[in-house]
Write a structure and sequence with these properties.
With 265 residues, this protein is an alpha/beta fold. It has helices spanning 17-26, 47-56, 83-88, 99-104, 109-121, 134-138, 142-160, 189-206, 209-214, 228-233, 249-262; strands at 5-10, 36-41, 63-66, 93-96, 125-130, 172-175, 217-220, 239-242. Strand 1, helix 1 and strand 2 form a beta-alpha-beta unit. Bound molecules: 2-phosphoglycolic acid (PGA).
Amino acid sequence: MKRQVVVAGNWKMNLGPGAAAEYASAFEPPRTEASVKVVLFPPTLAFSALREALRERGRTEVELGVQNIYWERAGAYTGETSPVVAREVGAAWALVGHSERRHLFGEKNSDVARKTRAALESGLLPLVCVGETWEERQAGRLTEVLESQLTPVLEVIQEVGGSGPSGAPAFHLAYEPVWAIGTGQTATPDDATQAHGFLRGRLVSALPGAESQRISILYGGSVSPSNVRELLAAPEVDGVLVGGASLDPLSFAELCLAGSEAGGA
Ligand code: PGA
């Protein structure tokens, strides 16, 4: 089955409103909306500037998301971002469970599940990130770790329903080995295929057939214009989640072009 190819850029805590507007004027992804979905996750404080600048340039096909949300809608939660307000300002997506949130800010698997639910209930499309550390991989615990990260999320999906409006998938997944993030050390296409195949198997066993097949599984971790095509050609790799190489509009446009080729444009 042909799945939606997604090329997503996670700016992390980089680029403010001014830089975001400059980015939008230099960013020329291919106009092949059907074959690739392009998503940017700017820092919260640059979100509106980026949205406005993309709109002025007529690039409204570029979808936007927030890098993190809280699981409550509103209240005394100093410093947190409401999923409802994220939706109100124009976010369509929310990154959930990025490894930096898990490892630097102590997010647990149960928190990731609560955030997934909050995203779904607020009309945001969660991009749920999973992945093992180097030590876990060396200890032969890859599938055990992926399983423990994915299971609570699947329980939420089973409860809430695995399809969004008009049969669109309720969420997407990103496999991001922690040892490959920001290190320049990319997983090989075979490594990615192995992990993605395991995740696909779990989706298939937990969700109804058509639903489980519509969910895209993105690879993330030191993706660049020089390795993106071989990663996208790997079986079960349906897109990429990119950190460092998404900060430059020219290199990110190159990644989007590779995505549109993979999507059949
Ligand atoms: P990287 O980051 O591309 O800089 O390795 C990926 C990510 O953290 O999503």
